[in-house]
Design goal:
Length: 264
């Protein structure tokens, strides 16, 4: 799985109805057709994106980073593991729905079996029993579904709090939030509790990868450009696409997240 550099804040999206969601989908998909420039990057909104990046970096410095370190330092490792397991289990219904939309029936079957195994032998998802028996998940999202349907990634965007994305993945994120099977199936109180669990899981991720995240945000010659490059290359790798190097040549390997390509 590729490294995702993001400062993520999950919402319940309770205010997004199907009709507004459809309008958002139509609006943003109009920008998905544009392809990357010669260097593999399509960033017509760079000026605005850099302002958002500066905001996100400030939020990470004063809020997200310290909160993740507090969470990582106070909460015992077994509890953090349980929170992560439950959050992953809550993601599985959405993964299954997207697997089906992508016509990847084998992946849908594997995720369904994983969900059933973790809910039963994993005591409601508290333990990742399926991985222990050699049944890895096939995580996906609606952004990947749009890719399978032929939508281009569109322009690069950096979202407030959510971090690096593209037009296509922004649409995918909105649809995943609005039509999340768990959120739609659970009463409001339980759905909010599920969202809180995912937030704590994200804090755990931020703490676990703190060295990498901080080296990019605070030690890079150009943290915006490096985060953008890392996101695009790793996302394209996840989707099975060839990535492009700065000279436009194909490169289907990950880049080293610790190497700063913008350092002099």
């Amino acid at each position: 799985m590729g490294l995702k550099i993001s400062l993520t804040a999950l919402g319940t999206a309770s205010g997004i109805g199907i009709a507004p969601g459809a309008a958002l989908l139509a609006l943003l998909l109009a920008g998905c057709g544009a392809g990357p420039t010669a260097d593999g990057i399509n960033d017509p909104f760079e000026t605005a994106n850099r302002r958002v990046h500066a905001f996100n970096t400030g939020v990470d410095r004063v809020l997200v980073g310290p909160a993740s370190k507090g969470y990582g330092g106070v909460v015992p490792e077994p509890v953090k593991r349980v929170v992560g397991n439950v959050a992953d289990t809550l993601d599985l219904p959405g993964d299954i729905a997207n697997n089906l939309l992508q016509l990847r029936i084998d992946d849908a079957a594997q995720n369904t079996l994983r969900l059933a195994t973790n809910l039963t032998f994993g005591v409601g998802g508290l333990f990742d029993f399926s991985t222990a028996i050699g049944l890895p998940g096939e995580p996906t999202d609606f952004g990947e579904t749009l890719h399978v349907w032929g939508a281009g990634e569109g322009a690069y965007v950096e979202l407030p709090l959510a971090g690096p994305s593209t037009v296509r993945d922004t649409v995918g994120m909105a649809v995943d939030l609005a039509l999340n099977p768990v959120r739609l199936a659970l009463p409001t109180k339980e759905a909010n509790a599920a969202t809180a669990l995912k937030l704590f899981s994200r804090l755990g991720d931020r703490d676990r990868f703190s060295e990498t995240v901080e080296s990019i945000l605070y030690d890079s010659a150009d943290s915006y450009a490096q985060a953008r490059l890392l996101y695009l290359q790793n996302r394209r790798f996840e989707l099975g696409q060839d990535t492009q190097s700065s000279d436009g040549s194909s490169d289907d390997s990950f880049i080293d997240p610790y190497e700063d390509p913008y350092a002099e």
